[in-house]
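A quick aside before the break. I want you to see a complete sequence-to-structure record at least once, exactly as it would be stored in a machine-readable document. Don't worry about memorizing anything.
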Amino acid sequence: MATTPVSNTPLTFACWFNTTNTTDAQVLMCVNAASSPNRIVMRAVGDLAGDPIRISAVGTTGSGASADTTSGYSSGVWTHACGVVTSSTSRTAYINGGSSATNTTNVAVSGIIQASIGVQRYNLFPSGQLFFNGSIAEVGIWNAALTAAEIASLAQGMTCDKIRPQSLVFYAPLVRELIDQKAALAITNNNGATVANHPRIYP
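That is the input. The structure line, written in tokens, reads:
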């Protein structure tokens, strides 16, 4: 996306992903500034013991803080990831609706103008953009901090447009086509991604 549907906290990221890579850190979703380190990013952290989901905030100085789930993902399995950033002093990561962990380090993020799926894009790392290897579906961004109960519903198979729709600012199922169904934002395919069906997850 050339622009972002959310520029600051609170925000919630959510998506389903399936990857065979459990050895590298891979970006699932990111919002960032154009010319500074400021960003909020959700990753599948395969290079950390336990392979958790991580939600991170990085400020102007490049210093940041992260929350990691207490359990991890497996190779070749559809997994639900969610990151909630309530404020500059609260960020929580979830995997499959649970195993949550919260970090309360004070990190202020500003200047957010870009958003991306499956890659972290900003000018400090032009040659190391951490592209995701696998499939991503049911991508949602809310300009609110979803509750644990709402996140559990997403992980049970509820689609993003059924969870707090008044706060949902971006929704792309990424099933069969690359279209944002909520914010009318253009999705640019920058790395030759292909679109495919995925098994529906029912509650």
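Two observations worth writing down. Residues 11-172 form a domain with the Jelly Rolls fold (CATH 2.60.120.200). The first helix runs from residue 148 to 155. We'll return to this after the break.
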